């Protein structure tokens, strides 16, 4: 079978590999689709994702497919089931796992990061991280359950209620997911700041955004109870703090560089009683994400701009494809 193997820093090869062997509590998944995100950019460049990837390794932590085999001890899944995998596997034993914060696990491993993921025809996962895809959700949409779940985790770390006015900074894939998600969680007004006039208009026309700000030309007023920073630059992190009203919550979702800082008026944090909240990966969020997809509360298909194959992944990672909103690899025909 075919796999796209990361053999070293910036070294990706399409290779013929052996079908993986299956442990008793695992399923073998015939991959349908695998999404690509900033984590894959980092791993390709030799930087850590949620954990370190040690080559040779098959990436593909965002994925969907159909079960081809089940291990001897598996009872909840059968051959032919349509599934998606939460990539993160927690140890269950460290002080973070034992205090209800598994995402902070000291021994995190992950499908598509520390063990082979969806950039191959067949991959394995332990059933504890495998989820059935609802019948009315396509395997293409299900392949982005993981990034949706990161946004769901962020939203669950906030206290949301309908009266709030929210601002999302960043009109990438994640920012546009947040626009829809905040409304699904009951927030009555969601505004969006971004760089693409076309995406801003589309979010007004189709995703329920009320007001948009074209950056960097337009100024954001200090008007928001909830601000989601989904860019990861110091300037947008500063803007996120400055856009708040008293009692506001700021979710720092964007990933900055490891040594990056931004400046913040700490008097403002005191006087406005701000909450500045970080957000890391996607614990306990897959059920919510799949329910939102099944209930048609999230349009993800129109946000997927590029469908790639194993041979074009490197073109994307090296920037040859130009502006990419969201890329997904079609690994096999959708079942
Ligand atoms: N916390 C988590 O668990 C988690 C999970 C997934 C992604 N992320 C991070 O979230 C961020 C967004 O992810 P993405 O996939 O949408 O990335 P992306 O690169 O597709 O989107 C970033 C967007 O920000 C826009 N932008 C740039 N400068 C801006 C500015 N000054 N004002 C407003 N918008 C601006 C860009 O035009 C782009 O559309 C990234 O930093 C990513 O690493 C975090
Ligand atoms: Zn991802
Ligand atoms: Zn742990």
UniProtKB/TrEMBL annotation:
<feature type="domain" description="Alcohol dehydrogenase-like N-terminal">
    <location>
        <begin position="24"/>
        <end position="135"/>
    </location>
</feature>
<dbReference type="InterPro" id="IPR013149">
    <property type="entry name" value="ADH-like_C"/>
</dbReference>
<dbReference type="Pfam" id="PF00107">
    <property type="entry name" value="ADH_zinc_N"/>
</dbReference>
<keyword id="KW-0862">Zinc</keyword>
<feature type="domain" description="Alcohol dehydrogenase-like C-terminal">
    <location>
        <begin position="175"/>
        <end position="294"/>
    </location>
</feature>
<dbReference type="InterPro" id="IPR036291">
    <property type="entry name" value="NAD(P)-bd_dom_sf"/>
</dbReference>
<comment type="similarity">
    <text>Belongs to the zinc-containing alcohol dehydrogenase family.</text>
</comment>
<keyword id="KW-0560">Oxidoreductase</keyword>
<dbReference type="InterPro" id="IPR050129">
    <property type="entry name" value="Zn_alcohol_dh"/>
</dbReference>
<keyword id="KW-0479">Metal-binding</keyword>
<dbReference type="InterPro" id="IPR013154">
    <property type="entry name" value="ADH-like_N"/>
</dbReference>
<protein>
    <submittedName>
        <fullName>Zinc-dependent alcohol dehydrogenase family protein</fullName>
    </submittedName>
</protein>
<dbReference type="InterPro" id="IPR011032">
    <property type="entry name" value="GroES-like_sf"/>
</dbReference>
<dbReference type="InterPro" id="IPR002328">
    <property type="entry name" value="ADH_Zn_CS"/>
</dbReference>
<dbReference type="Pfam" id="PF08240">
    <property type="entry name" value="ADH_N"/>
</dbReference>
């Amino acid at each position: 079978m075919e796999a796209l193997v990361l053999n070293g820093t910036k070294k990706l090869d399409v290779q013929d590999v052996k079908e993986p062997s299956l442990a008793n509590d695992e399923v073998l998944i015939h991959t349908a689709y695998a999404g690509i995100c900033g984590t894959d950019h980092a791993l390709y460049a030799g930087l850590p994702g949620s954990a370190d990837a040690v080559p040779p390794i098959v990436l593909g932590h965002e994925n969907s497919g159909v079960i081809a085999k089940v291990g001897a001890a598996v009872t909840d899944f059968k051959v032919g089931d349509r599934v998606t995998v939460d990539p993160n596997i927690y140890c269950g034993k460290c002080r973070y796992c034992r205090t209800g914060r598994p995402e902070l696990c000291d021994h995190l491993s992950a499908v598509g990061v520390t063990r082979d993921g969806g950039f191959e025809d067949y991959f394995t996962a332990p059933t504890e991280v495998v989820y059935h895809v609802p019948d009315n959700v396509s395997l293409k949409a299900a392949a982005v359950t993981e990034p949706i779940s990161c946004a769901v985790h962020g939203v669950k770390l906030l206290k949301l209620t309908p009266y709030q006015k929210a601002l999302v900074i960043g009109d990438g894939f994640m920012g546009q997911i947040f626009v829809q998600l905040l409304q699904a969680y009951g927030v009555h007004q969601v505004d969006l700041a971004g760089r693409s006039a076309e995406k801003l208009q589309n979010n007004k026309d189709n995703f329920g955004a009320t007001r948009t700000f074209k950056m960097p030309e337009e100024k954001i007023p200090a008007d928001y109870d909830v601000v989601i920073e989904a860019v990861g630059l110091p300037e947008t992190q500063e803007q996120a703090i400055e856009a708040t009203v008293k009692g506001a919550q700021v979710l720092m979702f964007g990933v900055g560089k490891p040594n990056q800082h931004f400046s913040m008026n700490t008097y403002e944090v005191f006087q406005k009683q701000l909450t500045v909240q970080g957000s890391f990966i996607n614990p306990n969020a897959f059920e919510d994400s799949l329910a939102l997809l099944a209930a048609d509360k999230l349009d993800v298909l129109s946000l997927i701009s590029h469908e790639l194959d194993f041979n074009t992944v490197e073109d994307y990672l090296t920037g040859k494809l130009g502006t990419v909103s969201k890329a997904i690899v079609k690994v096999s025909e959708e079942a």
